[in-house]
Structure formats: structure tokens, C-alpha cells
Amino acid sequence: MVLAVGEQLVKEVPSSITGVYSTWARLKDTGHALTNIPTETVGSRGLLYLRPREYAVTVPHDDAVLCIGTDDATTSVVAVLRHTGGWWAVVGL
């Protein structure tokens, strides 16, 4: 498997999280920034929830879908694709 951090390919993975943070200090800062974003409770109206082996495609003017999400990303891969023209898709594998 290929691993990249930013634009840098990783040739040797550090053996501890301390090693990761010392090699890529920005990961710690961006991780803290991500976890400091307040959570938002989303009701079922306008929510498209994806489970494993499901995918969805929507467009910006779709009034039925306001948010696409999943909470099953710990053991799965989630790919979010967004067309620069405004079309977007979420693929849950």
C-alpha cells in the first residue's frame, strides 16, 4: 500500500505516534483543529445515510438531500468525490 502525507511519499513508517508527530508535526496541529470543530446534530430530514457497500450520487439542486454521511469509516474506506462544476458523489466501500 502506498502512503503519502501531504505531497511526501512515506518510505518508512514510524513505530509510534510520537515518531509520527515528530516526522510530520503538522498532522498533530491539523488533527487538533479537526477535533475542535463543534459537532452538529443532524435530523433525518434531508439526510442520506450510507452503510457498507452502498453508494450515492446527488446534485446541488436536489431538495431531498441536504447532507450525505456515514459513521462506519473505522473499518471501511469512504471516498468523497466532488465535481468542480457542482456535482458530487459519496462512495462507501
Report on the structure:
The chain is α+β, with helices and mostly antiparallel strands. It folds into 2 domains: 4-35, no CATH class; 47-92, no CATH class. It has 2 helices and 7 strands. A 3-stranded antiparallel β-sheet has the order 4-7-6, with no helix packed on it. Strand 1 (4-5) and strand 2 form a beta hairpin. Helix 1 crosses helix 2.
**Sheet of most strands:** 3 strands, antiparallel
Number of domains: 2
Backbone shape: elongated
End-to-end Cα distance: 17 Å
Taking all Cα atoms into account, the compactness measure Rg is 17 Å
What is this structure, in a nutshell?
The chain has helices at about 15-25, 25-35; strands at about 5, 10, 45-50, 55-60, 65-70, 80, 90.
